[in-house]
Amino acid sequence: MIGYWGKVKKGIVVLTVLAVIGSVATTGIMAKKNEKNIKGNLVIVGGALGSSNSDVYEKFIELSGGKKEAKIGIIPSASGSMKSSVQFKEDLISYGVDEKSIEILPFSSHDFKGTEEDESKWKKNAENHHITKRIKKLTGIWFVGGDQLKITDTLMKENGERTRALEEIWGIYRKGAVLGGTSAGAAIMSDVMITGGDSLGGLRQEFTTEDVSNPEEEYAPVYIEKGLGFFQWGIVDQHFNERSRLGRLAATALRYKTADELAYGIDEDTAMVVNNQEGTISVLGRTNVTIVDVSGSTTTGDGIRDLDISYLSPGDELQVKTKEFTMAEDKLETKGYEYYNFKPLQATGVLSSYGTLPHYLSYSLVDNEAVEEVSSYLYDSKGNGFELTFKQTDETNGYWGYQDGQKDSYSILHVKMDVSPVKVNFSEKDRLKQDFKKSTLDVPESSFDPETKGSLVIVGGALGSSNEEVYNEFIKRAGENGKIGVVPAASSSLKSSHAFKEDLTSYGMSAENIDILPISNHDFKGTEENEEDWIDNKNDPDLAKRILEYDGIWFVGGDQTNITQSLLNEDGTNSQVLSSMWRIYRNGAVLGGTSAGAAIMSDVMIAGGGSYDTLSKGFTENYDGMSQQEGGPGYLEKGLGFFPYGIVDQHFDKKARLGRLIATTAVYGKENELSYGIDEDTALILDNASKTVEVKGRGGVSLVDLSQSDLSPSTHTYKDIRLSWITSGDQYNVESKEFSISDHKVSTKDYEYYEYSAGPHTGVLTPHPGLANYLSYSLLDNVGQDEVKSFSFSQGEGFQLTFSKGNQTEGFWGYRDGNKDDYSFLEVEMDIDPVSVTIEDN
Fold first, then answer.
1. Beta pairing class for 648-649 and 675-678
2. Which keywords describe this protein according to UniProt (predicted)?
3. Which residues pair with 456 in a beta bridge?
4. Whose CA is closest to 43, among 372, 211, 274?
5. N or C: which end of the chain has fewer CB within 10 A?
6. Rounded mean pLDDT of 736-754?
7. Half-sphere exposure of 50 (CA within 13 A, CB side)
């Protein structure tokens, strides 16, 4: 699909800028009256469908009649090549559909790259009886991603009427066939088709029915065309959370009101399954479907009031006519049982924890008893934009459960959103009002033996049970018949330790070879034994001897200070048990851990604090438990030091910990050493024998280099930071200081895909809100920008973060798990400067 309005492939002429249209006629675009008795279903995917997403593939095959009966046609017309169609066919075959039962239908209005045939001649096939009659035999149709206008151009006549091919598709759909699509193939599903534009253009209530994209502007009006109308109950948008499209969908839903006054935003690698007979919408896949209800909303000048937002996650269902929600059975209500109690900062940029909107609302608002509302901003580089306020009401509720092992899965009902126009002004400032307090932590010299033969598998948290890549790496290094000890000390119960043991056995290890070790400094919930009595086990000679039998040790997540207190003596020396762990590590064992089990790996252990507060306030000597994981000044303790090559931090992407890692490294980093921030569901693998760090898993590892920096924490100024981000298959040699990028990626330098003016990163509605993706799309793979900015602020002051391309900066891109974008980048230059902030009504 058209990813966002400024996307321009090199060699394609950019259309001349037209006058922005403030309002458009709705004739021919408004949704038609719903058809009754459609027996077919829809599987609508928000883009970037992973080949490994078995739930979505299996549901589409099931609704097509099953593996043996399915007859599936793939429509390639949205794409620029046949690659995605061939890939989808191969995926269907891998899930059990007979190759002879799948065909790529010859429908297109343009030529494809990499083929001898001129596929633009296929346009006439949409009226060719001999070709279109093949559709009658199909039980399923799939529309691949690309440019949604190419689908409508192929299947609709110039006068807006349906071609013979489209009539045949409607015919089998009414009789029971399933229709599905991803990205562009999702956009065409509703009558009102969102073809371009972004949230800032939407909130400015600017619309067009012509392509007025201008790469020199930082935003675009919402571009509306007529879709194919298979989805009867509202408007659909896609790549929703990843490209922060709530603003454009909400504005479209308000402008083009449908009978049910609902609109749907589908995240990547996630499907909205529509059952026309039962009138239900359900969710499958990785993340969320957003439901926007505009029935009680109003527009006031340039603002919006009382927009109703709900988020469904896999297993949830909506009954459309009654607007009743059914949550997955394994989720628990958060209302009255909120887990968190902290005062969140406004979501103002890349230093904001839970920087995507669903995460921000889940952790900071709905599952947090301390607040009733939170806010964020969206504005251009001149500061013209909007304040976004999210509020709880009596109808608001949250639902929490685990997904894919012990990854949080939230659903949210009825958060209200207000939008108000503002002007945000920034000016240079010598320093912030807040004094930067240094840490008094005294870190002794590392006792690491450079001849150590063992390895480390350090996971940034939220390790999915399905993350085969990471589990197999740990098992390979321990040996399939290896003996594993699990340290439960960080957790509040034994649940996560048993879950990890079950995961290891599911990957082929023997349960008899996996022990949960009696190591803790506190009691666990749900057990008869008082595990607080285990505190003396750290120096138990029998347990220390037993440790020597293990080929691998795993530290579960929770509170990292519980691990260090359970294994270090009061004077900071190694206990007998910890000494045994060091001994097997030196001799070749693998040590691993997730979340808290990652934090303990370096000599300097970051135990608490948020990015903004650590950069502005520095460090504290007080630790108030797990609540300090959500913010406040940094808190440091001595770690266990298994990783000798720099400081490690975790939950790096979700909790936006770049700022606290920079501040900590500025004080405690060693000369010419990097620091490492590990994303969730991602592992940093240290191989001591080869002196290499490699990444495995679904996210990435950020590497912070301050060797060339000019640092002044006392005046809150940090210059010439170098930031790199590597993903699965990429390596870094800690001895030679050289990177090795996986050979499935190509350099973006001088071959940038995009050319557009990128706005600053301002908060939860910024396109590509995660830092690594923001830099990849907006800077590294964008010839239109040499630098981008982000602002983080609170109470009238804050930071300007400037990210720029230097001589050594380089980006890399490839596909993974089907057709998902996979980026890495090296040596982005970064400055942090203090600023004053004023906000005015606009």
1. parallel
2. Carboxypeptidase, Hydrolase, Protease
3. 591, 686
4. 274
5. C
6. 98
7. 16
**List of residues 6+ apart from 97 with CB closer than 8 A:** 61, 67, 70, 72
How many other C-beta atoms are found inside a 10 Å radius of the C-beta of residue 125? 19
Q: Tell me which residue of 510, 246, 79, 228 sits closest to 237, measured CA to CA.
A: 246
CB 321 within 8 A of CB 259: no
**Opening angle at CA 695, ends 595 and 778, nearest 5:** 95
pLDDT at 281: 98
This prediction's pTM: 0.95
Give the β-pairing of 731-733 and 692-697.
antiparallel
- Total number of domains in the chain: 1
In the three-class reduction of DSSP (H, G, I as helix; E, B as strand; rest coil), residue 305 is classed as strand
Q: Domain range holding 621?
A: 455-701
Q: Which residues contact 510 (CB under 8 A, 6 or more apart)?
A: 481
Distance CA 477, CA 185 (A): 43
CA distance 459 to 601: 11
Mode of pairing for the β-strands spanning 746-747 and 397-403? unpaired
Assign 510 to helix, strand or coil: coil
Report how far Cα 591 is from the mean position of its chain's Cα atoms: 27
Q: Is residue 574 part of a domain?
A: yes
Predicted pLDDT of residue 625? 75
User: Residue 35's pLDDT band (boundaries 50, 70, 90)?
Assistant: confident
In a domain, 580, yes or no: yes
Tokens at residue 249, please? Answer: 């969908």
- For range 263-268, the mean pLDDT: 98
Q: With respect to residue 256, please indicate whether it lies within any of the assigned structural domains.
A: no
Provide the sign of the torsion angle of the four alpha carbons 184, 190, 191, 192, taken in this order.
Answer: negative
686 inside domain = yes
Please answer whether residues 347 and 418 qualify as being in contact, where contact means their C-beta atoms are separated by less than 8 angstroms. no
Mean pLDDT value of segment 356-366: 98
| Sign, CA torsion 79/81/82/88 | negative
